[in-house]
Automatic annotation (TrEMBL):
Domain of life: Bacteria
Protein's UniProt name: Phosphoesterase
UniProt signal peptide: 1-24
Taxonomy of the source species: Bacteria, Bacillati, Actinomycetota, Actinomycetes, Pseudonocardiales
UniProtKB keywords: Hydrolase, Signal, Virulence
Organism of origin: Amycolatopsis acididurans
């Protein structure tokens, strides 16, 4: 009876837009397959407001899940946000600049919670990641990158990153692929789990072949980053919305998603440091940069949408979350300890306010 009451209370709170409290964390449901899609550089109002250029995302998909209206990026520019999602590491001056040169992270120390102190791009093998956690726990992961082609594609150590600008027929960006910034991945067989997006439909054929964590990054046109795109597409939210219309049904109609899946669609950051560097969730200066958002403490408000059989269609909540919250929430689902800033005291994680159905 108590569990039934809690579920009903959470649903009522979500339908009324009531923010969750610390007790909203609760016990997560038995979600065994997590899908994450990251789009690029859009603030909350542009994406979710009434004039959105992405009606499939902001209306059709919005009606199928719970909208997290107070979800934030953790920094500017792109790369530090992606790295945060899979390791809990905060920005440094080079990741803030999207690592124009693919150089080593030179570590000079350690700081709480779990922060490698130093500067650079490719973290040493001693820095733990969500993929390494999953593998140790007997779970699986895979990253799917549109236009990447060769698995685990990245520049040579010390080389200029030639994927910073899109090319016709090749709009892959290494800076939107956080997995290639860790030696524990690129120097091991784990690198084989970093593949081109074209492999996704085959892997979704059955729950057995679907990774426990599926991390998806569209190319520089379809993630909304470029507008217009080098191939003549409009780009921005228009192209991102068309891409979602093609790929989200592939995910949501898969056996693994139907069985025990959760899809999170979010953005790495808002428009940019000059327009929104706001933060949430107690984020402050880190050991490697005083201002994670370059001109402020965060990456701005973006919002996020969560779809699952455990979320109430058309619901929303205004509890504060960021990319560290997402990492901690995924770790909670698989019974893993929290890495880096995901272990911050008081950080909100997904609970009955998100799993509200």
């Amino acid at each position: 009876m108590k569990l039934k009451y809690l579920a009903v209370a959470a649903l009522i709170a979500a339908s009324l837009g009531v923010a969750g409290s610390a007790s909203a964390a609760g016990a997560p449901p038995q979600i065994g397959h997590v899908f994450v899609i990251n789009l690029e550089n859009k603030g909350y109002d542009e994406t979710w407001g009434p004039g959105s250029a992405a009606p499939y995302l902001s209306q059709t998909l919005r009606e199928q899940g719970v909208l997290l209206s107070q979800y934030y990026g953790i920094g500017h520019n792109s790369l530090d946000n992606y790295i945060a999602q899979i390791s809990g590491q905060g920005p440094n001056t080079e990741t803030q600049a999207d690592c124009q040169v693919y150089d080593e992270f030179t570590q000079t120390g350690q700081a709480d919670p779990g922060q490698a102190v130093g500067q650079g791009c490719v973290y040493p093998a001693s820095v733990p990641t969500l993929p390494s956690q999953l593998t140790t726990a007997g779970q699986t992961w895979k990253a799917y990158l549109e236009d990447m082609g060769t698995p685990c594609r990245h520049p040579a150590i010390g080389a200029v990153d030639d994927t910073q600008k899109a090319k016709v027929g090749d709009q892959y960006a290494a800076r939107h692929n956080p997995f290639v910034y860790f030696h524990s991945i690129i120097d091991t067989p784990a690198c084989g789990a970093d593949v081109d997006l074209s492999q996704l439909p085959n892997d979704l054929a059955s729950p057995r072949t679907t990774p426990n964590l599926t991390y998806i990054t569209p190319n520089l046109c379809h993630d909304g980053h470029d507008a217009p795109c080098v191939d003549g597409e409009p780009g921005g939210l228009v192209s991102a919305d068309a891409w979602l219309r093609q790929w989200v049904p592939v995910i949501t109609s898969s056996p693994a998603f139907s069985q025990d899946g959760m899809l999170v669609i979010t953005f790495d950051e808002s428009d940019g440091p000059s327009s929104d560097s706001s933060a949430c969730c107690g984020e402050g200066p880190g050991p490697n940069t005083a201002l994670p958002g370059i001109t402020g403490l965060g990456g701005g408000r973006t919002g996020a949408l969560v779809l699952s059989k455990y979320t109430a269609p058309g619901s929303w909540n205004d509890r504060s979350y960021n990319h560290y919250s997402l990492l901690a929430s995924i770790e909670n689902l698989f019974g893993l300890p929290h890495l880096g800033y995901a272990a911050s005291t008081g950080l909100n994680t997904f609970g009955l306010d998100v799993y509200n159905r």
